[in-house]
Design goal:
Layout (H helix, E strand, L loop, with lengths): L1 H19 L7 H14 L4 E8 L5 E7 L12 E6 L7 H16 L4 H9 L1 E5 L4 H6 L36 H12 L2 E8 L2 E6 L20 H14 L19 E3 H4 L6 H8 L3 E8 L9 H17 L5 E7 L9 E4 L15 E4 L4 E8 L6 E7 L9 E2 L2 E3 L16 H10 L5 H14 L1
Parallel strand pairs: 3-4, 3-5, 5-8, 6-7, 9-14, 9-15
Antiparallel strand pairs: 1-2, 2-4, 6-8, 9-11, 10-12, 12-13
Length: about 450
């Protein structure tokens, strides 16, 4: 009886919270109050925390939703949405609040949303740049100084770059996100912007190693990124049409390789992919960066289905656990699909888990514990997004009984070093060694 009464109270509280979320712009105090209200209404499947503070001291709030909201659970992938990293690009900030509203009101009522939340841990950050949003006093479709953080820095040019030295001073908001990525096992992500209508995918930067001389900077997982971008575009009300804004550049099928659109140094999506082992795309959701509030409801309707369908893609491919002869998880083991190794090899987390996003097909998965012989397994991958679980393939190293040392990929322009090694006419032993490593990675 007590449980039933508690559920009724929770529903009544949620109705009050949801009723308060109308289609308008929510400033910092309103946004915080709404997130706290949602968590108070449904503490069993939400977790609210701040991953850090902005330059002016505002919390960078993240609401986590799922069956195990407070911690990672083995086998359940981590997903994230981040919006408003440019303070004057505001649509994403508001539609993420409405996404939260939709998820919490649909859980245990809608079977698809219930399965999605039971099998996915979803992190939602409505604003990465609260100072920029609050500083935008005059709303404009094209540009305001609110794009930047309080220090005047563009947060989407502020991350370490894999192609060239990024001399920008890392900002508090950027560092908070980098630490967040390091502390979670994110598999898939999207970064919500405004000023165009397109789904853009990595790489944003490039050099001859990634084909940039042909106007396209290709990652080893280019096919997966194209699929991810199209998943959003074709589930959006109109993005798939590829119509440009104000007769500007058009985007066939509503997608683009980031570098093909324009070169960008220090971007967040490349950082996620290279150093976070997380596939991230950038979603440009509105031609007008800061549109009138009376258009927000239509933006929500246009994006609702795409936002849900994109989350499901976190269940593409294969996942599993690497263990030793005693069944103990092995962290920092390298797990890659043959033919698409990463310049920073993808490694298992502290629970010995790996997640690889792959399209349906046949793949050879190579698991390596440094110092021991690799183990190869051939897998046949199907589209399991509708079942909310990637193919499971574990590896057991019977001869291993030690934990590999923690390995981290250096925050240097890795692709620039590879380019230099490839271009050397008379390589030194050091360069030959680097070439050997990179040839193994890209083989």
């Amino acid at each position: 009886m007590r449980a039933a009464a508690g559920d009724v109270a929770g529903i009544l509280c949620l109705v009050s919270v949801a009723a308060a979320l109308d289609f308008k712009y929510h400033h910092a105090k309103e946004l915080e109050a709404y997130l706290k209200g949602v968590h108070a209404a449904y503490p069993s499947f939400t977790h609210l925390h701040s991953i850090g503070r902005s330059v002016e001291g505002r919390d960078l709030w993240v609401l986590v939703l799922g069956r195990f909201p407070t911690h990672h659970k083995i086998g359940i992938p981590e997903f994230k949405y981040v919006a408003n990293m440019h303070g004057d690009e505001t649509v994403g900030r508001e539609i993420l609040l409405h996404l939260i509203d939709f998820l919490v009101t649909s859980y245990r009522r809608d079977p698809v949303i219930t399965r999605l939340l039971n099998n996915t841990r979803i992190h939602i950050m409505p604003t990465m740049n609260p100072d920029g949003f609050e500083a935008t006093k005059v709303r404009d479709c094209y540009y305001t100084p609110g794009r930047y953080n309080k220090n005047g820095e563009d947060l989407n040019r502020n991350f370490p770059d894999a192609f060239e030295n990024n001399n920008a001073t890392i900002q508090p908001e950027t560092q908070a996100v980098m630490d967040w990525i390091k502390n979670e096992t994110f598999v898939l992500s999207a970064n919500l912007h405004g000023g165009a209508l397109v789904a853009s995918y990595t790489f944003d930067n490039g050099n001859s190693v990634t084909g940039s001389m042909k106007g396209y900077s290709r990652s080893p997982d280019d096919d997966v990124f194209i699929h991810l971008a199209k998943t959003y575009s074709f589930n959006h009300a109109s993005m798939y049409k590829g119509t440009g804004c104000d007769n500007r550049k058009t985007f066939p099928e509503g997608i683009t390789n980031g570098y093909s659109w324009y070169q960008l140094e220090g971007g967040m999506q490349d950082y996620n992919y290279i150093w976070g082992q997380c596939f991230e795309i950038t979603l440009e959701l509105s031609c007008c960066k800061y549109p009138p509030a009376d258009q927000l409801e239509k933006f929500w309707r246009d994006n609702k289905a795409a936002l849900i369908e994109y989350i499901k893609q976190v269940h593409l491919g294969v996942k599993g656990q690497i263990t030793d002869k005693n069944g103990t998880p092995i962290p920092n083991a390298i797990v890659e699909a043959k033919g698409r190794a990463h310049v920073c090899p993808y490694r298992t987390n502290q629970q010995g888990e790996y997640f690889l996003l792959l399209l349906p097909g046949t793949y050879v998965i190579n698991a390596t514990v440094p110092g021991f012989k690799s183990m190869l397994k051939t897998v046949e991958i199907h589209d399991n997004t509708g079942n909310f679980s990637a193919l499971k393939q574990d590896f057991s190293f019977s001869e291993v009984s030690i934990r590999p040392e923690v390995a981290s990929c250096p925050k240097i322009p890795l692709y620039r070093e590879l380019k230099r090694a490839s271009a050397a006419v008379k390589p030194t032993l050091h360069i030959l060694g680097l070439m050997t490593v990179m040839l193994v990675i890209f083989n």
